[in-house]
Amino acid sequence: MNFKLRMKKMTNTNQLIITREFEAPVELLWEVHSKPEHIERWFGPAEMYTNVLDMDFRPGGSLFYSIGNEQGKMFGLVKYTEIQQPSKMIYINSFADENRNIIRHPMSDTWPLEVHNTLVFEALGNKSKLIVTSVPIKASEEEIDTYRNSHGMVEQGMGGMFKQLDDYLETVTS
Amino acid sequence: MRRDVFQAIADPTRRDIITLLASGDAMNLNSIADQFDISRPAISKHIKILEECNLIDIQQEGRERICELKPEELEPVSDWVEKNRKLWDSRLDRLENYLNELQTKNEKND
Q1: pTM of whole model > 0.80?
Q2: Does B90 touch chain A (CB under 8 A)?
Q3: What is this model's ipTM?
């Protein structure tokens, strides 16, 4: 393998690309990404509730949400960096504490602090296509300090909940 | 500062260095730097970060610093890609069901 080929291989190992076609027009596919009442219905794991706590759907805006069950809840943050209706959306997704500070995956040291997602929407007549590109990114030193300061607080009383999320990640993996 | 494999691969030059070393042979710093258009100190800095991320071993041999990749340390990346794939797959399954549900509802209302 020549250098460029190997380089391409390496570049591909850290990114995930998923393509899915939907039996729905692209306008509807876009709409269910852009409104909290829709997002609550599909964004989180099936066996947990998803609550959108606030949503500011514009570049620079964010989506703050909780997912959970009777055992507890955890928080997630989506930061929108680019929104081009109805064709493209880029956002950074991370775990968060209740004050929106970014934290590590509470049960996994090897989950990246932040995940950069690019969603491309394509119209196919009455159908549509979604292309998701997902790559890990590394946060700044400042954010990591925030994580250190808040980590203990977040972990308290939520072990069972995080265990369940981890189990969920395991089941979807196996 | 916390160093991990995701930081190692966050930078395109570092990914290229990893790829270069992934061919299996240990290389000295100069021959790595020769492969790139950017300055030797810049490469040296990336090498240092890769070492701090525990992705490469550096051996001093005489005047040369020999860099060797620890490929097993890249495993968390492929693990993550796989878990993230399952996460997205099940999320898109839910999305698909929800879209179908919405459209069935609309047809009934028509």
Answers
A1: no
A2: yes
A3: 0.76
